[in-house]
Each structure stands twice: as C-alpha cells, then as structure tokens.
Amino acid sequence: MPPPPVPGDVDAFLARPNPAVVASVRADGAPHAVATWYAWEDGRVLLNMDESRLRLRFMRRDPRVALTVLDEDDWGRHVSLLGRVVSLEIDLELRDIDRLALHYTGRPFRRRDARRFSAWVEVDAWHGWAGGGPWPGSS
C-alpha cells in the first residue's frame, strides 16, 4: 500500500459524499466496523460521532483506523485508507457534524441534543480498486 499523497483522481473521488465504512480496534483486538459520513480535506479525514458510540471509546484507546470509501454507483470501485486519529475533540457548536450533514444531505444535522466528537485521521497508506484491478498508483 503506497503512502500519501493520493493521486489527483483519488483525491477528487474522496472529496465526494460517498458511502463509507470506518473500522476501529476493539480492546480485544477485533475490528469494529460501521457506516459513517466523512469529509476529505488536505489529505486528512474528518469523522464525527455521538459520545455514546463505541467507536469513540475504541479510538480513544487505540488511534488506528481504516476507512473504506465506496463509489455509490459501482461498489467495485473503492478506496481504503489506513491511518490514525491525530486529534479527537468535542464538537462544541456542532460545526463539524453540520459540515458533514450539509455535505451528505444538503441540510444541517437535525439532532442538536447530544454531545459530539470530531476525529481527524492522518492517512499512512491507501489502496484503491477500479475497473476490475488496482486503482492506478495504488499498487
């Protein structure tokens, strides 16, 4: 898996509001994977979660994560990012979740009553698949 930066076409793909799955590491070492919204900015990934989510607990204990981003029209075309959470902070004014909600739905996030946390992920390596083979530049 090559290190960043990703090629321009992968960068453009990751900037879209694609379906994605994030995996974190449970205390017993097993993976924990869930669907998620994300934003791609300057080679980093923004995630946001309610304080009750298990993934928040797992990320606090072990910052390693993986994110797989799927092309909504062709799930055989996807990019996987391996990295680590480098910043985990309270989203006090819900700016980050609103940013993600606007990116995916065109509207601010509707639930305003829960404390939320933002995680910035620094990417260490990536791999992509497109057209029945490795995404150019990912092998």
Describe it for me?
The protein is an alpha+beta fold. It has one domain: Electron Transport, Fmn-binding Protein, Chain A (Pnp Oxidase, Chain A, Roll), CATH 2.30.110.10. Helices cover 19% and strands 46% of the residues. It contains three helices and eight strands. Strands 1, 2, 3, 4, 5, 6, 7 and 8 form an eight-stranded antiparallel beta sheet that branches. A hairpin with a 2-residue loop joins strand 5 and strand 6 (74-90). The mean pLDDT is 95.
List keywords for this structure.
139 residues; alpha+beta; Pnp Oxidase, Chain A; eight-stranded antiparallel β-sheet
Which percent bin holds the helix content?
10-25%
Number of domains: 1
Q: What fold name stands as the CATH topology?
A: Pnp Oxidase, Chain A
Query: How many runs of DSSP E, i.e. beta strands?
Result: 8
**N-end to C-end Cα span:** 6 Å
Q: Counting H and I runs of at least 4 residues, what is the number of helices? A: 3
Q: Strand count, sense and closure of the main sheet? A: 8 strands, antiparallel
**The CATH class:** Mainly Beta
Query: Can you give the mean pLDDT?
Result: 95
| C-alpha Rg (nearest Å) | 15 Å
Outline: globular
- How much β-strand is present in the residues? over 45%
Question: Do you know the CATH architecture?
Answer: Roll
Poorly predicted ranges (pLDDT <50, ≥5 residues)? Answer: none
Compose a concise summary of this entry.
The protein is an alpha+beta fold. It has helices spanning 8-14, 54-61, 95-105, and strands spanning 20-25, 31-36, 39-41, 44-50, 64-71, 74-90, 116-130, 133-134. Strands 1, 2, 3, 4, 5, 6, 7 and 8 form an eight-stranded antiparallel beta sheet that branches.
